[in-house]
Amino acid sequence: MNRRTFSCIICPNGCEIQVAHENGQIIEITGNKCPKGVDYVRQELTDPRRTIASSVRIAGAELPLCSVRLTKPVPKKDLFAVMEEINKVDLTAPAHIGDVVIKNVCGLDSDVIVTKEMERIS
Ligand code: SF4
C-alpha cells in the first residue's frame, strides 16, 4: 500500500488530501471537504490530466503572440506532444476568441482555441 498527499485543485479551498492507495484503488482518504476531492484523487491516480494555456505566433496584429488554451484537459503524459503541435502554429490576424487553431489536437478530443481578440493592423 502507498501513501500520497494531493492538493485538490477543483475549488479555491485547496484541500490537502491524504490517500492510502494500491493499484489505482483508494483504500483510505482524509482531508477532502467534499466528494469532488475523491473524484479528483481517483482521476490523479488512474489518468492524470492537465490543461494548457499558452500562446502562438501571429502576423499582422499589434502584438506578435496570441494566447490560446485547450478546451479539455489532456493526459499528463501527452503534454509535451501537445505543446509541440501548439509551437508549430502560425496565425494571421484577425483572430477571435473561440477560433479553433487546432481541432482534436494529437487525437486527444481537445481543441486549441484562441482566448484573445487580435485585430488586424494595416
Ligand atoms: S475536496 Fe472539495 S472542497 Fe476541497 S478543494 Fe476539492 S472540491 Fe474543493
Measured between the Cα atoms of the first and last residue, the distance is 63 Å
Tally of extended strands? Answer: 10
CATH superfamily of the largest domain: CPE0013-like
Give the amount of beta strand, in percent: 35-45%
Looking at the overall shape, the CATH architecture of the largest domain is Roll
**Which regions are unreliable across 5 or more consecutive residues at pLDDT < 50?**
none
The figure for the number of domains is 2
Helix content: 10-25%
What hetero molecules are bound to the protein chains? iron/sulfur cluster
Supply Rg. 19 Å
Order of helices and strands: EEEHEEEEHEEE
Content-based structural category: alpha+beta
* Average predicted local confidence, pLDDT: 97
Q: Major β-sheet, in short?
A: 5 strands, mixed
Q: Rough shape?
A: elongated
Strands across the major sheet, in which order? 8-5-6-10-9
CATH class placement of the largest domain: Alpha Beta
Work out the helix count.
2
CATH topology of the largest domain: CPE0013-like fold
